[in-house]
Amino acid sequence: MIDSTSAILEGFAYAFSKMGEACPDDEAIKKLIGYPLDEIFAGLGVVGDTSEYVRLYKEKYVKIYLDQTTLLQSAYEAVEFGAKFANLGVVTTKTSKFSKLLLDKLGVGEFFSVIIGREDVERVKPHAEPIINAMKGLGLPVDKSVFMVGDTKLDALAASNAGARSVGVMCGYGDEAQLRKHCEFVCENAYAAVSLIKQNL
């Protein structure tokens, strides 16, 4: 739904610079987007405690993410359309506080009834807990009428683990082959995904 690539990359560059280390290349970072920050830093070669790296990343990110994040093409139309026939929620590895501010800034916050972020769960995607908690927030059960729309295999695996259905979108960070392997449906963008969901309800 959003493109925050520049803010994410700048946050990692800042953290590694402050720690006196060379930052891994952009592609290495992008391949790990979707995982929690501590896991990303570990995946980028940080050994041991990653907490200072995470702190430094957030120190930079919080200053720039509102100005350096945009909606992807057709995302607003997709959310507006989806809200007409479905209850919408957000499940993210970002904090729900940051996510709420961002969605409001982008003009789509009003469409979402619940936001589940990193601080709202003990176990993140691909565990089922974030989706289960989101559905609890909506006051609804998790069943095959629930669709998780995402751009990585983590979203699809979380959906499967929760007993929901998954729709992968190819306009984000995920690898197309991985999306086709793990998702029930794969679409070009968010609007196509929402249209498909309406047809399959």
Description:
- The chain is mostly helical and 201 residues long.
- The protein is 48% helix and 11% strand.
- It contains ten helices and seven strands.
- It has helices at 5-18, 26-30, 37-43, 51-64, 75-82, 96-105, 129-138, 153-162, 176-182, 190-200; strands at residues 2-3, 70-71, 89-91, 114-116, 147-150, 165-169, 185-187.
- Strand 5 (147-150), helix 8 (153-162) and strand 6 (165-169) form a beta-alpha-beta unit.
- The longest helix has 14 residues, at 5-18.
- The mean pLDDT is 96.
Let me know the number of strands.
Answer: 7
What structural category do the secondary elements indicate? Answer: mainly alpha
**Beginning-to-end CA distance, first to last residue:** 21 Å
Order of helices and strands: EHHHHEHEHEHEHEHEH
* Mean pLDDT value: 96
Quick overview of this protein structure:
The protein has helices at 5-18, 26-30, 37-43, 51-64, 75-82, 96-105, 129-138, 153-162, 176-182, 190-200, and strands spanning 2-3, 70-71, 89-91, 114-116, 147-150, 165-169, 185-187. By secondary structure, the protein is mostly helical.
Note the topology.
Blueprint: E1 2-3, H1 5-18, H2 26-30, H3 37-43, H4 51-64, E2 70-71, H5 75-82, E3 89-91, H6 96-105, E4 114-116, H7 129-138, E5 147-150, H8 153-162, E6 165-169, H9 176-182, E7 185-187, H10 190-200
Parallel strand pairs: 3-4, 5-6, 6-7
Antiparallel strand pairs: 1-2
